[in-house]
Design brief:
Blueprint lengths: L16 H12 L4 E2 H9 L7 H13 L3 E5 L6 E5 L7 E4 L5 E3 L9 H5 L12 E3 L2 H7 L1
Parallel strand pairs: 4-6
Antiparallel strand pairs: 1-3, 2-3, 4-5
Helix pairs in contact: 1-2, 2-3
This protein binds zinc ion (2 copies).
One zinc ion binds next to loops.
């Protein structure tokens, strides 16, 4: 599930059923999800969970480095995804708002050039937007 500890529970966080549910939803998600979507997925199985509980768990997971919180473009809605070892980039479809996972890091070849300027790069965020394959097809 998290890094190489695929079957185990991450250390530093108490195991509860609800936290397990949230982590599982994040683990299954092909792209980052907002709290409302995560809540909707859990609610189907467990109606006793409230949205504020889901928020609290997500914030805890972010604090413990188990999840990553991001925002996309001008949208102030926070999205959450599991903190996996390799980082991922997504391209946002302006029409259907779908996030498309990119196979490789578009910054990889630029980072050595930035470091040539004496700047040590520790991370990066890239915003890519346009139209997804389905929306392009539907346009014609
Ligand atoms: Zn689209
Ligand atoms: Zn990257």
């Amino acid at each position: 599930m998290i890094n190489e500890k695929r079957s185990g529970w991450p250390s530093g966080i108490k195991k509860t059923k609800t936290r397990e549910y949230v982590l599982r939803v994040l683990d299954d998600a092909p792209s980052p999800l907002c709290a409302t979507k995560i809540y909707a997925k859990i609610e189907k199985d467990r109606s006793s969970i409230s949205l504020s509980t889901v928020y609290r768990i997500l914030e805890l997971l972010v604090k413990k480095d188990l999840a990553v919180k991001t925002t996309i473009m001008n949208d102030d809605k926070a999205l959450y995804e599991l903190n996996r070892d390799q980082h991922k980039h997504y391209a946002l479809c302006l029409k259907c708002r779908k996030l498309v996972a990119l196979k490789n890091c578009p910054m990889e070849q630029f980072i050595p050039k930035i470091e040539d300027n004496g700047f040590q790069v520790m991370g990066h965020k890239v915003e890519i937007y346009g139209y997804c394959h389905e929306c392009v097809l539907r346009n014609d």
